Amino acid sequence: MRDGSVVYLEGVSKIYPTAAGEIFAARDVTIDVQPGEFYSLLGSSGSGKTTTLRLIGGFEIPEYGRVWIGGEEVTEQPPYRRNVHTVFQSYALFPHLTVAENIAYPLRIAKTNRAEVAERVEESLRMFQLKGMGDRRPSQLSGGQQQRVALARALISRPKVLLLDEPLSALDAKIREEVRQELRDLQKQTNLTFIYVTHDQEEALALSDRIAVMHNGQVQQIDTPKQIYDRPTSLFVAQFIGKANFLKGTVLEANGETAAVEVSGTKIWAASPGRSPTIGDAVTLMIRPERLCLGETAKTAKADNQLSGKVASVTYVGQLVELKVETPIGLLTVTQLSSTADLSPEQSLSWNTNDCILLPG
User: Fold this and answer.
1) pLDDT at 126 over 90
2) Residues contacting 308, CB < 8 A, separation 6+
3) What DSSP character marks residue 316?
4) Which residues of the chain form CATH 3.40.50.300?
5) Quick check: 156 and 121 in contact, CB under 8 A?
6) What is d(CA 330, CA 340) in angstroms, rounded to the nearest whole number?
7) pTM for the full predicted model
8) Which CATH code, of 2.160.10.10, 1.10.486.10, 3.30.360.10, 3.40.50.300, is assigned to 7-236?
9) CB-based contacts of 123: which residues, under 8 Å, 6+ apart?
């Protein structure tokens, strides 16, 4: 696998000594990143995502495991020996240098000739919408512009891999959304490999080709955004990614990757992708709020699961409306388009087997 990967981590662990004993900041992490892929490391604070990025960049050396970049083992090589560049959360721009000088810095260090430096800096200024700003200092730029300068500097030497450590976290919500789209467009345009660290699940889902969800230093699941959202493999991933209804139950019947589960005296049909449950197992069912049908749509749907309920509350969230519905199996959250939502106090609900995911525990 490492031969075809631009980055391959093989059972990598990083340990930090503390007064209370040793702590694994990363434990037995194995990931493969393909050329031209936008790959995200997603997790909350302390999950091990930034440590994993630093292990790739050479800022940390693992106690166990090996790191490969471009088919070459670089486990103990320093950062400057690896064909990767890092964009830090703080941007790390030189305040005493102009925008053009900041962007040119990696080429100056590499002793690139002046004519080529000037040409590539000019090209970068155009690409990153910084035309006419080459003579400004970083302090004269907005947060979004500084972020573009940091990206331009990281990419000007054409690395195999660009490492990004929460580069948008310092921006306000509106600018962050704009720059996020620019970042994705840039990655497609250059076809470079991006490895992106974030705690923002929406950001990871919007940007990534694949996501590695991390928790307590370990990788919990690696998959496409759609699969991680629709088919989480653990209760942790299901709870961490997006909103969902969770129901505790016991397996009554099992047929391959489909099961009937008893929840508060009601039989619910659920999908069990990748596993075959056993009768009597205690399980958790996950149903995304937008997968529940309401009102006349629910009545006429040929769905495997149907219930009736009473609306307990309604919350408007812009173009969506969120309803809390009391049902025989508990309080369910339902999300509908506010323009077409049925807000009758008495409701019918329905959903399909494939929209109800069985998880262990």
Assistant:
1) no
2) 327, 346, 347, 348, 349
3) E
4) 7-236
5) yes
6) 25
7) 0.87
8) 3.40.50.300
9) none
Question: Left if phi > 0, otherwise alpha if psi is -120 to 50, otherwise beta: which for 184?
Answer: alpha
> Do the beta carbons of residue 251 and residue 257 sit within 8 Å?
no
- pLDDT digits 0-9 by tens, 270-297: 999 888 889 999 999 999 999 999 887 7
The Cα 47–Cα 51 span in angstroms is 9
Predicted pLDDT at 255: 87
- Using CA atoms, how far residue 42 sits from 160, 210, 215, in Å, is 22, 10, 9
Strand partners, 85: 162
Q: Which CATH class is domain 244-360?
A: mainly beta
- 272 HSE (CA, 13 A, CB side): 24
| pLDDT per residue as tens digits for the range 83-123 | 898 888 777 889 999 999 999 998 988 889 899 999 999 98
* Strands lying side by side in the sheet with 7-18: 21-33, 7-18, 64-69, 72-73
Give the SS3 label for residue 282: strand
Compute the residue count for the chain.
361
Q: Are 42 and 204 in contact (CB under 8 A)?
A: yes
- Under DSSP, the state recorded for 63 is S
Helices 143-155, 173-190: crossing angle, 10 deg rounding:
20
